[in-house]
């Protein structure tokens, strides 16, 4: 599985590709696109063109694209629910956040991330974002030819760098109820800063779990504007000055006047960040009964020399720079200082695409923004043309079948009318019998009459049995040459039978047979021997005779 995290900032776009393996995952490649500083440049158009190039390099069927809402566009609250079921928590989020949101519930998308379960309760990061922000981000992705798999938040994505997201949700047994809140041991909180171009992401961790997120309206642009105004430089030049030369003196001894002025200029801007951070840390201490153990920082501005000691002095907590890429053993792109400072959120977003359903990422693609089934979409892409063709063919077939039915019905009505008219005019049938059954009965009866008439006609010229007997008598030799005693003579249709006795032996029977063969229609006489009498030989002769019967054909 390949997952691509896309971090869209106000200064540059960062993209990181992560690929899962049998032993975990590896960071495969990275891309960056810095925004133009020219006046009047359409940054959205720059982002779209860059992301279209990125989308063209990946197969959408095997790649998950993950993006995030800006943290200042999402309200995040730490809540405790008296149940651990994820679906029940999702349904309860609007009611839990109702009184704390500055916008209408009807115009918001709600999502929650279970931090951990304690007995039958769940500690949850509950989030809500106006629908307009989600819609705008999805439209930007659509214009870039990308269909995101996850729309997360910067804070929860950044937390993937530290959490054991490949495991299930952490679970601990229930603890005894403490009636005195002050008697509870303090929660040890580690804070990680991601200082960007216009905003600073403040993430609070207890162990490896994210428990709180804040977004501060302060970033490198504050320092760039101060340098630009102080030294009358264009913004692009001022940005280069900050990236290459920015520092805060840790000691003022042996420093030049110009160095002191430049350091004070930057320190003055950073004090605004310090003030906001002090308020955020105070909120964490109060909300979680927490103790700040450490502050880590990353982001482009964290490269300013001396920033760590300066923040340590004012926040009263150790502040150290975080090397993001050092957290991962398998990195296959250059581990440059810039990559270490800027790819944190992009890596976290890519890891969101690898999370399992048992511990899913925070995803604001809910309700009307829910992602369509990839299987159905891929099926439509693969067989859409064939489906359209079959649909058109089905419609044409339905039209043809309907038209055929109409024509058949019309022809049936016309043929029925013609049948009734002919039955009344030719067969002289009554209106009651002028139908198909009546006509068939009329034809059947008349065919029988015709057959009877033809049978009678065929028998009109038939030879009688007496005429056949006369022909037999004429064919038989006289009694002197062939003594003959006839005991049976029958004529059935064309079959004649003659039986009796002759004086003499078998030769006389054969002589009689030869005499009658000229009378037989086929010239054959069948001779059957019978019981002889004293001095005489019995015989039975069968043969066919012509009775002048005509065959009656069928119509």
What report would you give on this structure?
- By secondary structure, the protein is α/β, with parallel strands linked by helices.
- It has three domains: 2-177 and 185-371, Nucleotidyltransferase, domain 5, CATH 3.30.420; 385-459, no CATH class; 465-544, Gyrase A, domain 2 (2-Layer Sandwich), CATH 3.30.1360.
- The protein contains 14 helices and 18 strands.
- The chain has helices at residues 43-56, 86-97, 131-143, 154-158, 220-231, 235-245, 257-288, 307-315, 337-342, 344-352, 374-425, 436-459, 465-475, 506-517; strands at residues 2-8, 12-21, 24-34, 63-69, 75-81, 108-118, 121-130, 150-153, 171-172, 187-195, 200-206, 209-216, 290-298, 319-321, 484-492, 495-503, 526-529, 536-544.
- It has a five-stranded mixed beta sheet with strand order 3-2-1-4-8. Strands 12-11-10-13-14 form a five-stranded mixed beta sheet.
- Helix 5 crosses helix 6 (235-245) and helix 7 crosses helix 8 (307-315).
- The longest helix has 52 residues, at 374-425.
- It is rod-shaped, with a radius of gyration of 55 Å.
- The two termini are 82 Å apart.
- The mean pLDDT is 88.
